[in-house]
């Protein structure tokens, strides 16, 4: 059976018509054979759906050479420069990012993913063993909307 790719759901659909679809927004979709025809015209015969999904996933990673996650003022920034905090403020950051998903390369060549954040432009909360280097990052996805 030819599966149907739903533009509203942005995935293959088990329904045979858009009339019963909760994602229906007037955009419809394509059958799998129609989709294969379009894709093969665009990128050639050497493809499959998993390869396309991987290409989309890989495109979401941001190289640390391009830029680091955006930072905002930390709660400690307002304390910097105050006389009574001057000595104790040394290890605290002025700016920090949200947690992001990171791709890390270790000194032995292994690569893993995890979570980290930046403080004043430096990665923090990385493993302490293996000389980890962050090569790419991406924001966490938005939380699930409860299946709606």
Question: What does this 3D model show about the protein?
Answer:
This is DUF551 domain-containing protein. With 148 residues, the chain is α+β, with helices and mostly antiparallel strands. The protein has 2 domains: 4-59, no CATH class; 62-138, no CATH class. Helix content is 16%, strand content 28%. The protein has helices at 32-43, 49-59; strands spanning 4-6, 11-13, 29-31, 62-63, 71-73, 95-97, 100-105, 111-119, 122-124, 133-138. The chain has a 5-stranded antiparallel sheet, with no helix packed on it. Strand 7 and strand 8 (111-119) form a beta hairpin. The longest helix has 12 residues, at 32-43. The chain is elongated, with a radius of gyration of 23 Å. The two termini are 27 Å apart.
Task: Please outline the major beta sheet.
Answer: 5 strands, antiparallel
Mean pLDDT, as a whole number? Answer: 78
- The radius of gyration is 23 Å
Strand arrangement across the biggest beta sheet: 4-10-7-8-9
Number of helices: 2
Beta-strand percent range: 25-35%
Structural class based on helices, strands and sheet pairing: alpha+beta
Taken together, the total number of domains comes to 2
Give the assembly state of these chains.
single chain
| Strand count | 10
> Looking at the structure, what is the overall shape?
elongated
* pLDDT < 50 runs, ≥5 residues: none
Helix content: 10-25%
Helix and strand pattern: EEEHHEEEEEEE
Give the termini distance in whole angstroms: 27 Å
Protein name: DUF551 domain-containing protein
Organism: Pseudoflavonifractor gallinarum
